[in-house]
Design brief:
By secondary structure, the protein is mainly α. The chain has helices at about 5-20, 35-50, 55-65, 70, 75-85, 85-95, 100-115, 120-130, 140-160, 165-175. It has one domain: Orthogonal Bundle (Hypothetical protein af1432). The protein has ten helices and no strands. Helix 2 runs antiparallel to helix 3 (about 55-65), helix 2 (about 35-50) crosses helix 8 (about 120-130) and helix 3 (about 55-65) packs across helix 8. The longest helix has 18 residues, at about 140-160. The protein binds nickel (II) ion.
């Protein structure tokens, strides 16, 4: 079977992410944050197994690094120097703009993601697939409902990039109803 991504590139990106996110935990939990990055990259690898025309290395590096600009001291320039411009641009598009009002941030990010190659759309789909697990215990119903609706917005905006990830996200959105009382 022909593989469209490299283990060495995966390792380099995961080492960078592990250093950058060191000490961070999953929301409402003691589990290291890096588990989220392994979930997102796993979803990408599953999709790349069937959608072989995609640039696997671009997708996987952006999956592993997708939160480093948003959540750590890592800069765009640093990612550009170490991983190249395409990766840095992808990660930046996946980064929320905190200067905007919170309710505008998702639409703004999706607009920027849509200007990127489809591999970046795939990262956003995989990110939300991974995040539609049981919500943190301190979320209220309003937040949970809103998070599900945001999932639908991501699905509707980016589904063309990957029928594999789109159908997986659709089933996660359906299952998430169980958390709405
Ligand atoms: Ni994420």
């Amino acid at each position: 079977m022909q593989q469209n991504w490299s283990q060495e590139i995966y390792i380099k990106a995961l080492e960078k992410a592990a250093q950058a996110h060191q000490g961070q935990k999953m929301p409402g939990s003691e589990i290291p944050y890096i588990i989220h990055l392994s979930f997102v990259s796993m979803e990408l690898i599953a999709a790349l197994n069937v959608e072989k025309e995609r640039d696997g290395n671009l997708a996987i590096q952006c999956a592993i690094l997708h939160d480093v600009i948003e959540d750590t001291a890592t800069t765009f320039e640093e990612i550009k120097t170490e991983f190249g411009e395409a990766i840095a641009n992808g990660v930046l598009a996946l980064t929320k703009d905190n200067s905007l009002e919170k309710k505008l941030q998702m639409a703004d990010s999706l607009r920027r993601v849509k200007k990127q190659p489809p591999e970046i759309w795939m990262v956003k789909l995989a990110d939300r697939i991974s995040n539609l697990q049981a919500p943190p215990h301190y979320w209220n119903q309003e937040k949970i409902i809103q998070y599900r609706e945001e999932g639908i917005q991501i699905y509707e905006t980016l589904k063309e990039a990957s029928s594999f990830l789109a159908s997986r996200l659709a089933s996660k959105i359906e299952d998430y109803k169980a958390f709405i009382k």
